[in-house]
Amino acid sequence: MRIARFSIDGNVAFGAVEGEAPPGSTEGLVLNIIKGIPFADFELSGTRVPLDKVRLLPPVLPNKVVAIGRNYAEHVAELGNALVDDQGRPDAPVAFFKPSTSVTGPGDPIEYPSFSQEVHYEAELAVVIGRMCREVPRERVADVILGYTCANDVTARDVQKREKQWARAKGFDSACPLGPWVETDIDLARAADLTIQCTVNGEQRQLGRTADMIRPIEDLIVHITEAMTLLPGDVVLTGTPAGVGPLNVGDEVAVTIEGIGTLTNKVIKRG
After folding, report:
1. pTM beyond cutoff 0.85
2. Looking at residue 72, what DSSP letter applies?
3. Which domain of life is it from (predicted)?
């Protein structure tokens, strides 16, 4: 099931996306409005509205977004980082937060921050948590996942290089586009081998597969929940393939993930 969050006539609701449309299009899609919320038992109301008559919102409002850096070997290499420490031991996953205020939805603008001159796109598979969980054993990871969506881990690369912490570089307003919806019919086995693509103004910039992750989704959830409780609606970003690069004001950036859909945003000057 594809679960979208949307607004219409000033009201916000969840709906199940029904129908098929060409990639990147919403033509012919309708929303079957959900009675309740997707993190508990719910019913489909049978009331349908055309998707092109509503405004799609971020599919969830996470309490926190936990992101994993350096999870694709070729991306690690392109930024000049190492996969092992100075003693030859594999580095632990690099985890960081993107605040809830950085989250924005499909079609919403990415506001180019005034404190940066080098903003990059990073296409990523996002895991949406469906239930409160802590210290999740590897064999139970599937039980805590609601589904998956597309993400863009927008990064002020010059600030990331200059500052020891990544909070400003990756946490500025609009730095975490999510959407267009949550796909719940993807299991862990399929999520482990999906195509991820990023285009800028229609030109392909990134093309990779989740099969190239250094650490799979199960390991990431175990690692994160050893330290903290994840809540329903929290989001885990799983890393980006190689090919990251700059965005400029006026660019349209699109993240497409096999079996999920396309997340498109335009870059504007921060007002």
Report:
1. yes
2. B
3. Bacteria
Judging by DSSP bridges, how do beta strands 203-209 and 195-200 pair with one another?
Answer: antiparallel
pLDDT digit string (tens) for 239-261?
999 999 999 999 999 999 999 99
As a CATH number, domain 65-269 is 3.90.850.10
Domains 2-56 and 65-269 share a fold: no
- Structural contact between residues 3 and 147, judged by C-beta atoms closer than 8 angstroms: yes
Pairwise CA distance, residues 194 & 24, whole Å: 17
Q: Categorize the per-residue pLDDT at 27 as very low, low, confident or very high, splitting at 50, 70 and 90.
A: confident
**Identity of the residue numbered 179:** G
Domain ranges of the chain: 2-56, 65-269
Asked whether 263 and 150 are in contact (CB, 8 A), the reply is: yes
Q: Write out the H or E segment, with its range, that includes residue 97.
A: strand 94-98
User: What whole-number distance in Å separates Cα of residue 171 and Cα of residue 155?
Assistant: 8
Residues 6+ apart with CB under 8 A from 172: 102, 111, 113, 156
Instruction: Print burial letters for 142-180: b (CB count within 10 Å at least 16), e (below 16).
Output: eebbbbbbbbbbbbbbebbeeeeebebbbbbebbbbbbb
Q: What is the DSSP string of 212-223?
A: GBSS-HHHHHHH
Task: With CA atoms as reference, report the closest residue to 144 among 37, 259, 232.
Answer: 232
What superfamily does domain 2-56 belong to in CATH? FAH (2.30.30.370)
Q: Which stretches of the chain are DSSP H helices? A: 73-78, 157-162, 167-171, 188-191, 217-225
Check if the beta carbon of residue 269 is closer than 8 Å to that of residue 174.
no
